[in-house]
Design goal:
16 helices; two-stranded antiparallel sheet; 5 strands; 52% helix; single chain
């Protein structure tokens, strides 16, 4: 879904070209469901496009004949009653439109259906308050989700990561190098990197990472610490006031980089290194870190490594570990030893 997150997109404080009911729903997601800013932007764009499609079909009495035909529709004054009239057949036609005319992948269609399901569930639940009616029930409730074939994780060699790091250049060289090195050595997810602040560095050796379900701490290698120090010192040399945002654009030091911007940073370095055929993404670097750490830890330490990196474990496995201590303390001697003994410790030297 990266195509739905423009480089300059920031969390929507006001929702451009959105009807009132959609604005209220997005505010509900923000305040009641704790949606991340990047997820809110994506949700806003996807649901706005869906509403434009419905409004176009109502106004033209036909489906758009090409994929962008409906995207210029002004829907600021669109009434909620238009969605209340949508039937299951229309939703199925929209899914066919996404598949056949727009050419979305199964994963993209799946995500759009999930967002549409959530919107209709909200409208049905509050239909009396909103003054609408769904006499036939929720039309989106049982919309089938396309099967998405799981892809095998791409794992890089240490030499390829070093080549990636050495290819970083440009006015954001210090930032991009520190960011890529951090993901590659600490195994952070894209959303975790996007939300980092400078005060999350604890005692220099540890980085506090706030995930969706818990706070965890990851060990910073010596080279990663040095890269972060150099980048932060550079930022403070031209900032009027000290800013807490870890990774930001030079022109907007107070704003975190978006997920799309971070992906683009990795893609640029990949192209410069001649590794674009590998399709390297932040997730590639995270998965590589996980593989290297689990190889170093061995079979007996595999699940401790995955838990440390924030990968989802089933309840049976999670019961083997005491997560409370890691949330309260930045110390994790086991993982510190694993990282220091792994090839990750030499990266960026």
């Amino acid at each position: 879904m990266s195509s739905y997150l423009p480089d300059n997109e920031s969390p929507p404080d006001d929702y451009g070209n959105c009807p009132v009911f959609l604005e209220r729903y997005l505010e509900y997601c923000k305040n009641n469901l704790g949606k991340r800013p990047t997820s809110l932007v994506e949700q806003c764009l996807i649901l706005r496009e869906f509403c434009q499609y419905i409004h176009y079909c109502r106004a033209q009495d036909e489906k758009p004949d090409f994929k962008d035909a409906h995207k210029d529709m002004n829907i600021c004054k669109m009434e909620i009653s238009e969605l209340a009239c949508v039937c299951r057949e229309e939703l199925e036609e929209y899914i066919c439109f996404l598949d056949e005319t727009v050419g979305n992948s199964s994963a993209t269609v799946r995500k759009k259906i999930i967002f549409i399901r959530q919107l209709f569930a909200y409208l049905v639940r509050l239909q009396d308050e909103l003054g609408i009616s769904f006499p036939d029930g929720d039309p989106a409730a049982e919309l089938p989700l396309p099967t998405v074939r799981a892809s095998e994780a791409t794992v890089l060699t240490v030499r390829q990561i070093e080549k990636l790091l050495s290819s970083v250049a440009g006015e954001n060289e210090l930032r991009d190098r520190a960011m890529i090195l951090l993901i590659a050595t600490a195994g952070l997810s894209l959303s975790e990197v996007a939300g980092l602040n400078r005060t999350d560095v604890v005692n220099e050796e540890w980085l506090r990472v706030r995930g969706a379900n818990k706070t965890r701490y990851v060990y910073l290698t010596v080279n990663c610490r040095a890269a972060l120090r150099s980048y932060i010192a550079f930022c403070r040399s031209f900032e009027d006031n000290e800013c807490d945002t870890m990774f930001s654009a030079i022109r907007h030091p107070e704003k975190h980089l978006t997920a799309r911007m971070i992906r683009n940073c990795v893609a640029r370095a990949s192209t410069a290194a001649g590794l674009e055929n590998l399709g390297i993404t932040p997730k590639t670097l995270r998965d590589t870190a996980a593989v290297i750490m689990t190889q170093t830890a061995g079979e007996s330490g595999r699940f401790q490594v995955l838990d440390y990196l924030g990968y989802k474990l089933d309840s049976r496995l999670k019961n083997r570990f005491d997560d409370t201590q890691q949330e309260l303390s930045a110390e994790n001697p086991f993982m510190k030893d694993i990282v220091e003994r792994s090839p990750l410790n030499e990266l960026g030297g």
